[in-house]
Specification:
Elements: E1 20-23, E2 29-33, E3 42-46, H1 50-53, H2 62-69, H3 75-86, H4 93-99, E4 103-104, H5 116-128, E5 149-154, H6 159-162, H7 164-176, E6 181-187, E7 195-197, E8 201-204, E9 207-211, H8 213-223, H9 241-251, E10 258-264, H10 268-273, H11 281-295, E11 301-306, E12 311-312, H12 324-342, H13 346-355, H14 365-375, E13 379-389, E14 396-405
Parallel strand pairs: 4-8, 5-11, 6-10, 6-11, 9-10
Antiparallel strand pairs: 1-2, 2-3, 5-14, 7-10, 8-9, 12-14, 13-14
Helix pairs in contact: 5-7, 8-11, 11-14, 12-13, 13-14
Length: about 400
């Protein structure tokens, strides 16, 4: 590997904070990785290089580290540092350039394969597995919808557990809209900020999807400052990437498309106060900003809501393993929420969650409420529902596919 021009003997390597090391399947090697997935890369290295890495504090140059280690040549040391820098595991100009750069690297490989052919096979299974809707049909074979499709709610569970629920939501999306611009409103799992945009384009093994800069300009103009305050929020986030991969698979032979990636953080303050999110100034401002940005689009826009339903069990700090009565009670609670979704009623949806103190941790609350409030669709339709249950009762996560029409 040719060293980066900046990796010279006077370079002062500094490992990024909060990295983790673990043993490799090779007993003579270790792996270094970022558990927060700001970088998705994993570096495997010989155990003797651990003492090298421990010196990467930013205090010493490579020349000084080489001398301290008693190495006769800097070649292997520079190669190791270059590998770490390429993996974005150093606090370096390369990492800072990535944070401000034009392309977001995929963070969810492992949830889906790295090879495009294997990705396509996995995506196909979300439609064709037992209980699935089948692949999107020829337009002539599609029955009329209740109206123009404005938004679809889909899971952001990993594909293996979300399964055919993804298929039901995306079949409706592909069959009922000819939009080439998708506003993806998604749960934010890693940032304390209420709303976070990125201008980065989204790269996956299926290609790179363009983020619509003009649309983002309109959102920022209407909302105001603060939408880029957390520059790392999008890097480890799965709730947009998993939807982008499915859009790529479904549209790659149909039409090019663009996205607007908006992460939405917690509404717990609204739940705790028992007041509708529309009473929060920043949320009301985002509702108006979404409406203004779409009004200036000059083309058809479709929304994709990326959110799940209940999260219960010890994994989510509940005291006891999930059992039958809990699952029944949670399903009943979900059915209440789904009735509000069918009515396209964001206020009733929020009120039902607030009434139980969000005890079941409905992670789809923020993106779902926001989208329905901004679009005001006339009607909704629930397409599929499921509960994932861990075999030992460690967790249960429920999720649905739904569509909303004007």
């Amino acid at each position: 590997m040719a060293p980066s021009p900046i990796i010279t003997p006077d370079f002062r390597p500094r490992l990024r904070p909060r990295l983790a090391a673990a043993r490799s399947p090779d007993p003579a090697a270790l792996v270094l990785y970022d558990p927060n997935r700001l970088s998705p890369s994993v570096v495997t290295f010989p155990q003797h290089q651990l003492t090298w890495a421990e010196r990467f504090t930013g205090a010493s140059t490579l020349y000084e580290i080489q001398a301290a280690l008693g190495l006769s040549s800097s070649t292997e040391l520079i190669s190791f540092v270059t590998t770490l820098d390429d993996a974005l595991l150093l606090d370096s100009p390369a990492f800072r350039s990535y944070l401000n750069g034009p392309v977001r690297r995929p963070a969810c490989i492992g949830c889906y394969p790295e090879e495009p052919a294997a990705i396509r096979e996995m995506m196909r299974g979300l439609f064709t597995a037992p209980g699935g809707p089948g692949l999107p049909r020829d337009p002539a074979a599609v029955p009329p919808a209740p109206g123009k499709l404005r938004a679809a709610l889909v899971p952001h569970m990993d594909y293996a557990r979300g399964g055919v629920t993804y298929g039901w939501g995306f079949q409706e999306l592909i069959e009922q809209t000819d939009a080439s611009l998708f506003v993806i409103v998604a749960t934010s799992h890693y940032s304390p900020k209420r709303f976070t945009l990125t201008r980065m384009n989204f790269a996956t093994p299926l290609g790179t999807v363009e983020t619509d800069q003009a649309y983002i300009d309109r959102l920022v103009a209407a909302y105001g400052t603060g939408l880029f305050d957390d520059p790392v929020a999008h890097l480890p986030e799965h709730s947009i990437e998993l939807e982008v991969v499915l859009l790529q698979y479904l549209l790659e032979n149909r039409r090019p498309f663009r996205i607007v990636p908006l992460l939405v953080g917690s509404f717990h303050d609204c739940v705790d106060r028992g007041t509708s999110p529309e009473a929060a100034a920043d949320i009301a401002r985002m509702v108006a900003a979404l409406q203004a940005a779409e009004a200036g689009a000059g083309e058809s826009v479709c929304y994709l809501i990326s959110g799940d339903l209940a999260h219960i069990g010890p994994k989510f700090r509940d005291p006891n393993p999930v059992d039958g009565p809990q699952l029944t009670a949670s399903r009943n609670g979900d059915e209440t929420l789904l009735k509000h979704l069918t009515a396209a009623d964001p206020q009733g949806y929020f009120a039902a969650i607030a009434a139980e103190g969000d005890a079941r941790r409905i992670c789809g609350l923020p993106p779902t409420w926001l989208t329905l409030q901004a679009l005001r669709p006339r009607a909704g339709r629930v397409l599929h529902y499921n509960q994932y249950v861990h075999p030992a009762g460690h967790e249960s996560v429920s999720y649905a596919a739904a569509a909303f029409y004007e």
